[in-house]
Amino acid sequence: MIRPEEAPRPLTVTELAKEIQRELRPLTAVLLKGEVTGVKRSAAGIFNFTIQDGFSKIEAVLFADNARRVTTLPEDGQVFVFRGRIDFYNKTGRLSFNVDQIEFDDVGKLRARLEELKRRLEAEGAFDPKRKRPLPRRWRTF
Question: I need a labelling partner for 52 at 20 to 30 A (CA). Which of 19, 32, 135, 141 fits?
């Protein structure tokens, strides 16, 4: 049996929160791949969203200064590779992923290139109905 003088002192909530933050501090450049859901943008330009895969979810935040620097912004349903750090907010007791960089995954890269090509061709007038030619009445070959 543990005597009262040998019993470990219980931690306060603040002490536990600081310990969690101290343990998470080394996780400063984590790469994370997942699908974006629940994107919300605040009036201050802060993006809050969830990154998920088939089994797990983590809340993420993209602060306004980082949002101005990234090449693409999070969109619902898109899969990205994120770089960021894990953070624990002791006031709310929540763990979150603070994003500082967003890149498309391989499929997303192809989709982005296709969208860029569509925008360029649209700007050149390639989809203008006036440029369309009628199909021949009789096809000679396939």
Answer: 19
The whole-model pTM stands at 0.68
- Could you report the per-residue pLDDT of 104-128, keeping only the tens digit for each? 877 666 777 788 888 888 888 888 8
Q: What is the pairing mode between strands 94-104 and 57-62?
A: parallel
Cβ atoms of residues 49 and 37 within 8 Å: yes
d(CA 101, CA 63): 11
- Report if residue 50 sits inside a domain: yes
What does the alpha-carbon distance between residue 108 and residue 79 come to, in Å, rounded to a whole number? 7
Least confidently predicted of 5-9, 12-16, 38-42: 5-9
Please give the residue that has the higher pLDDT: either 137 or 75. 75
Q: What is the CATH number of the domain that holds 24?
A: 2.40.50.140
Determine the structural domain holding residue 76 and report its residue range. 13-128
Sign (positive or negative) of CA dihedral 70, 37, 99, 104: negative
